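User: I'm putting together a teaching handout on how multi-component assemblies are represented. Below are the sequence lines for each component of a complex, exactly as they appear in our records. Could you produce the 3D structure of the whole assembly as structure tokens, so the students can see both representations side by side? Please keep the chain order the same as the input.
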Amino acid sequence: MNRINQKLQQDKKLLSIYFTAGYPNLNDTVTIIQNLEKSGVDMIEIGLPFSDPLADGPTIQASSAQALKNGMTTNLLFEQLKDIRKTVKIPLLIMGYFNPILQYGVEAFCKRCNEIGIDGLIIPDLPVDVYNEEYKMTFEKYGLINVFLITPQTSEERIRYIDSISNGFIYMVSSASVTGSQTGFGKEQTDYFKRIADMTLNNPQIVGFGISNNKTFTQATQHTKGAIIGSAFIKHLSKNCVDTIDGFVKSIEK
Amino acid sequence: MNRINQKLQQDKKLLSIYFTAGYPNLNDTVTIIQNLEKSGVDMIEIGLPFSDPLADGPTIQASSAQALKNGMTTNLLFEQLKDIRKTVKIPLLIMGYFNPILQYGVEAFCKRCNEIGIDGLIIPDLPVDVYNEEYKMTFEKYGLINVFLITPQTSEERIRYIDSISNGFIYMVSSASVTGSQTGFGKEQTDYFKRIADMTLNNPQIVGFGISNNKTFTQATQHTKGAIIGSAFIKHLSKNCVDTIDGFVKSIEK
Amino acid sequence: MKTYNVNEKGYYGEFGGAYIPEMLYPNVEELRQNYLKIMAEPEFQKEFNQLLKDYVGRPSPLYFAKRLSEKYNTKIYLKREDLNHTGAHKINNTIGQILMAKRLGKHRIIAETGAGQHGVATATVCALMGLECIVYMGEIDIARQAPNVARMKMLGAKVIPALSGSRTLKDATNEAIRDWINNPVDTHYIIGSVVGPHPYPDMVARFQSIVSEEIQWQLKKHEGKTKPDYVIACVGGGSNAAGAYYYFLDYDEVKLIAVEAAGLGIDSGESAATSVLGKEGIIHGSKTLLMQTNDGQIIEPYSISAGLDYPGVGPMHAHLYTSGRAEFISITDSEAMKAGLELCQLEGIIPAIESAHALAIFEQKTFKPDDIVVVSLSGRGDKDLETYINHFSL
Amino acid sequence: MKTYNVNEKGYYGEFGGAYIPEMLYPNVEELRQNYLKIMAEPEFQKEFNQLLKDYVGRPSPLYFAKRLSEKYNTKIYLKREDLNHTGAHKINNTIGQILMAKRLGKHRIIAETGAGQHGVATATVCALMGLECIVYMGEIDIARQAPNVARMKMLGAKVIPALSGSRTLKDATNEAIRDWINNPVDTHYIIGSVVGPHPYPDMVARFQSIVSEEIQWQLKKHEGKTKPDYVIACVGGGSNAAGAYYYFLDYDEVKLIAVEAAGLGIDSGESAATSVLGKEGIIHGSKTLLMQTNDGQIIEPYSISAGLDYPGVGPMHAHLYTSGRAEFISITDSEAMKAGLELCQLEGIIPAIESAHALAIFEQKTFKPDDIVVVSLSGRGDKDLETYINHFSL
Ligand SMILES: Cc1ncc(COP(=O)(O)O)c(C=O)c1O
Ligand SMILES: Cc1ncc(COP(=O)(O)O)c(C=O)c1O
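Assistant: Of course. Below is the structure of the complete assembly, with chains in the same order as your input.
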């Protein structure tokens, strides 16, 4: 059973952390992953940087640009990760835009992920139907879970459809917005979390976008299985060294 | 008999000088006229300054602008000239654009000229036909000679027509150009002077535009009755005081 | 029958004529004797109309301005001369005159310009015909209409600054006339408005008359009738107004409104409202109304709009004013700027500041809900962007 | 039968589709389901055509460029989109999309812009309809197309600089997409070219197809036939080309030439010649050809022309390229500038630098004397004056 599915069965609210590979320094990738696991994080999304991350806000954009400037490439990331499973046990996902994956070759990319021990992919600009028709078999062949997004605007019908073709969790975008653009959750969002929860989907939901501290984490996970922190963590890294990751994670889960 | 006609009967080449009233100083008018007469000039054209002298080149334009700035007005000019005939005997003409005369009132203007002892008018933008139909009687009533211009482009037919309604001299523009824009006469001009001379008109011709020194004066008057100096004299005044007029005039007639 | 058109002698009532120095006589006379004959030639007509259509982009639309009409509770149509090639009505005239010049055998073209629109329109037709082009433009106008100066250069014209007087349109015209005096044989002077000696005012009005010719059939399509209740146009020299009025002149039921530039205000001493402040006189070869001192010196005008910054008005308009055929209204700089911005934001059209003067009428005068009001949108405001942006601190 | 048009799934051959984040799905899907239906409504057709005629000034002339034709010894017709209101073909699309947006109940409009022409065209239609308008524009483009920035401000639009990446069109597009993600309910995104996720490329091409629709009957009048031998257009995203090609796509006897910006030269590393330098990939929601590293990172393009400074090309054009239906030619900055100046001085028309790329073809390729060559003169050069003046030190 895929590490993601195992993790999802645990009876706890999951904390997942996103970071951009190659940021702040080109070779921080493994250290960050290890430190995150040590601090008790449940799951990690390794961002494959892209030149034009159109679903991301300024923080992740800037970290991606810096990572590329530092020299990050798809090959290098795989190289850095090749021994990761010798030390790290928690589920690892790669989150990236479709074009770099397409250029690498979707099958080659999936194969390499499988070899390394990556558990899933999040590709925001790979549409559900294209995945379903063209790439589902490849993903499954290499044991990769593909994670789809839903937003407050996604229709109930479409949510059920997405649920039907998901086999891990659903990435629930807290509010329709690019990453990093929320400062807290209001009634609208919590109603939305509850509405989805009440749909009793097959796949658990993990909330992303706008989680930055213990308060928003608690709100986000009241009706869901977990939450993902991205921009807030990148911001932390931009001001503090990788040794302080533990403090950051503890401040969320306190 | 009008002083102009008397002067034209003299058996000599006539030197006529144009100056702008009110330039260089507002009250130079009378002194300039007196000095010109003393120096042996035959005829004087007193320029009534106009804000928009469109047939004049930069030198006369600038002198007109300065004269207006100094405070010259039609009334003031008449005031300055009121006793001129007590000291000055040579023909005096006023040269000015039509609009200031129109505003003064053409009849009032002619009357005032007559009272003062002005002998003629040169109004470059009063067309021949308008003069003929509307103002001829008034001019004649006040004993004023109106002087018309011809240019190298004026047709023979029109020259004969202009000759027929002239009663003093014809102002022969040396070449089609605004004042002050020639630097010497070539074959084209002398051919033109000769061509007109060969027409044996009723009215003698006096050449204007482009006469600046003894050489051009001599060329211009070879086939004509005389010549008018304007810009060159203004230029002289702009650099020298009114006491030096004698020297300027002598340099032309030497 | 009363007529507001020119008579054979070149006069509109008591205004007009050709008060020119003898040096200009051969050129002006040649034009006078030939212009009507040439314009009537089928070959000329064909070439003129073809260029207006394929090159200028005529007919210019008669656009019903819905939101502006709603705001002022009347029916406002804009005659879109701003859509012409080069951005103003001026090109109608320069196309006509360049064809005229060619038939008269001229190969050197001069022009004066204020806003630069006429200069650009002249440079344009000279490029089109491969003729040399010299444009005189006041030093002040060169500064405030920089885009048009750049356009003239691109088109291969030589732009010569007029440095005398107020260094605006009047002085550029003086310089152009001086050039013509100096070049009497091979040069045609393309005057940019219904000013200057006869036959210019009539010739330019005829070339611009296409504007009201089109208004008639366009209005017929929109409203089922050929005649509006009002025709409104700004007046610098008066060419866009002449074009917009032309076929309505003899129909008193079509009310004509001429809008002049009041600058900082009629009584401020900084204005270009010729009809109110002017008296009969001679300017640039024509007897007309002009702003002048008691002594007959021409007063330096002022308007924020380079195209209206002129101390005279064409003789047709002087006659329309004294005869009462047209109503003359003055609009200040700031009223015009406000109206210009309003058109941008209600209709998505940036008008020339000249044209904005015409639009400002709606804050001054109330029209009936079913009045059909045609406004001559004489030009677009691309040349005026800097002035607008600075004025409103955008 | 071969077709070069879109299929039901939103693909041109293998290019196109809608590679969008889920956040955009509801909006894009709403559009996809409705655009053809809405466009087919008689009421929509009527309003669209009326505005194209009375507001935009269509039909734009098909002008036989006599002197240019003489110089290159062939028959050159210019399709005069430069005469449209706001000065380029872009307005055809924004008129269509604003009517679409209104019918979809949107009241906030966003757009990206490169040259600023699409931004101005969007700001214009928003003013016309009284809708809020936000335009994203690269910081570099804000500097090099200043007149258009001023125009957008006059029209009441908010211009937001894109500060990331190359700070040009690509980045402005990213920002616009981010805005749309953030405002999924009340906002319509008016894309300015035949790029983006399906149905945008097809919708924009349909709105621009008026260009070739007119060319057909206009050419019939001029030459007695509806089909030219060549249609030439510059390609940034490809909308003016799409419009000019549209009705000729399925007629192989009409040869299509697409002109891309070679910048400082194809091999200089400073270029925007997508078809030559690009590989299949995903940009802005569409699978197409784009300039990218081996790693799939998008390369920052370069062209002197802000409207061609884009690393991708619409999926229709990617297909026209790979299928060989259109010939693709690259033109450098300096070739384009020279062709632009030549048009000024031979025909009195100042072209946009984008359009000047299309005109530069005549120095590259020889046509037969009786070939009928239609060039899409996609816009006027008023926005580019400073660039021209500096380039030629005029
Ligand atoms: C757009 C525009 N409107 C009006 C005018 C004023 O000229 P006229 O009164 O001859 O129409 C100008 C002059 O440059 C102009 O550019
Ligand atoms: C005048 C002009 N032509 C061409 C283009 C390029 O766009 P497209 O390739 O979509 O026609 C632009 C873009 O701004 C433009 O302004």
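A couple of points students might notice: The CA atoms of residues 298 and 305 of chain D lie 19 Å apart. Residues 57-88+209-392 of chain D form a domain with the Rossmann fold fold (CATH 3.40.50.1100).
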